[in-house]
């Protein structure tokens, strides 16, 4: 064998002549590389979708909730909570709500039995909530000053509830809250940072007082139990701390604050942990595949002992024999790596499409995946190559 071209031709012919064996050898590096690329790519795609959502929704939305210190069973915030909160200089806008309990929501009276077992949130809200949440209405309007001043029984429903009740945009429609009919005046779009709002009913504070909240005095107002605050960008933690002081006048436990975007960041961290687990499994699969390559090629050395003996008798050196088997292992790694990359990219595309994520593929994954498969395959092929090179022509007669 005088040229490198001849050596390459013999190695490729050896693989092509044993198609089933070659296919089985390809599976190890292919599955390992595909698992690694899919894990990294899907996690990056989810993270890309997360970044897009955070950029769209903003990181500066803070939820302030009353805790038990403001009341034992039904904690509420002070009546003048809005002016107190507005004393915080880093606050941009604020809205208040009151979560009402034990209200059965139905699209019509005959459906009461069905929806008694399915609690639907009913919230008293002020007129500023959509602007603070930075969410639009997909139909109709939000609650306004006229609803407050005339105690109109107007309601806005979330998009999920609209779908559940088969609400049509612009439809003149009523729903029943504990048997009291409210006219649906609008449908709120999806609220990414507060998913419970998608299936909620929103009414005005005066309507909540008139129909559902029993107070000690006629002049008493319905007190909120939550605030939603938009802070200056970058001052979320400072604003959250300042709100605790401004609202509860220095107390420590009377309310809780929650920066809503932190939940998305925690989800990203959990995705990172999942990625590490799957990547580790992919590397393990590649190593197991390498062991399989070493095993099958060692058996191949015995099966091809006659071929090796003839070539040794014709003057082929040990280095040429070893190089042939190493080249076969290298080709297996190359082909397995390419197939694994293709399979991994396809998995990312399918997964991102189904989940509605942004397709993200780091450019370094493709060469890294192919290189990993080739390195593992070459390492796995070292022992069979050395074993083939050490065979003497006379010994092959005994093996063959």
From TrEMBL:
GO terms for molecular function: transmembrane transporter activity. GO terms for cellular component: plasma membrane. Its main location: membrane. It is a multi-pass membrane protein. It is found in: Cell membrane. The keyword Transmembrane helix applies. The chain crosses the membrane at residues 20-42, 276-302, 325-358, 364-383. InterPro entries: ABC3_permease_C, MacB_PCD, Macrolide_Exporter_MacB. Residues 280-393 form the ABC3 transporter permease C-terminal domain. Keywords: Cell membrane, Membrane, Transmembrane, Transmembrane helix. Residues 22-215 form the MacB-like periplasmic core domain. Belongs to the ABC-4 integral membrane protein family. This is Unannotated protein.
């Amino acid at each position: 064998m005088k040229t490198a071209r001849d050596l390459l031709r013999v190695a490729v012919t050896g693989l092509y002549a044993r198609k089933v064996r070659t296919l089985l050898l390809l599976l190890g590096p292919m599955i390992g590389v595909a698992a690694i690329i899919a894990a990294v790519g899907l996690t990056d795609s989810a993270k890309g979708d997360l970044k897009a959502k955070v950029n769209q929704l903003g990181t500066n939305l803070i939820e302030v909730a009353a805790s038990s210190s403001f009341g034992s069973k039904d904690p509420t915030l002070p009546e003048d909570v809005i002016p107190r909160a507005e004393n915080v200089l880093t606050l941009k806008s604020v809205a208040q709500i009151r979560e009402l309990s034990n209200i059965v929501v139905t699209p019509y009276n005959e459906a009461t039995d069905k929806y008694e077992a399915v609690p639907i949130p009913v919230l008293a809200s002020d007129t500023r909530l959509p602007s603070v949440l930075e969410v639009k209405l997909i139909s109709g309007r939000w609650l306004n000053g006229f609803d407050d001043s005339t105690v109109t029984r107007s309601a806005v429903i979330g998009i999920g509830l609209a779908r559940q009740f088969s609400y049509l945009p612009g439809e003149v429609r009523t729903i029943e809250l504990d048997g009291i009919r409210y006219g649906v005046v609008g449908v709120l779009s999806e609220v990414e940072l507060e998913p419970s709002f998608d299936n909620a009913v929103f009414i005005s504070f005066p309507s909540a007082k008139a129909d559902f909240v029993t107070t000690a005095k006629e002049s008493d107002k319905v007190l909120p139990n939550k605030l939603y605050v938009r802070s200056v960008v970058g001052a979320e933690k400072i604003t959250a701390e300042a709100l605790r002081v401004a609202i509860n006048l220095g107390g420590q436990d009377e309310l809780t604050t929650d920066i809503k975007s932190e939940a998305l960041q925690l989800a990203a961290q959990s995705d990172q942990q999942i990625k590490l687990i799957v990547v580790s499994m992919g590397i393990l699969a590649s190593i197991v595949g390498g062991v399989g390559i070493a095993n099958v090629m060692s058996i191949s050395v015995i099966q091809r002992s006659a071929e090796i003996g003839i070539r040794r008798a014709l003057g082929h050196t040990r280095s040429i024999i070893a190089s042939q088997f190493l080249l076969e292992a290298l080709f297996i790694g190359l082909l397995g790596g390419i197939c694994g990359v293709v399979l991994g990219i396809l998995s990312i595309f399918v997964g991102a499409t189904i989940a509605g994520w942004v397709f993200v593929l780091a450019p370094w994954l493709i060469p890294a995946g192919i290189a990993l498969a080739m390195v593992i395959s070459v390492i796995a092929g070292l022992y069979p190559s050395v074993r083939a090179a050490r065979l003497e022509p006379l010994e092959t007669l005994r093996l063959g």
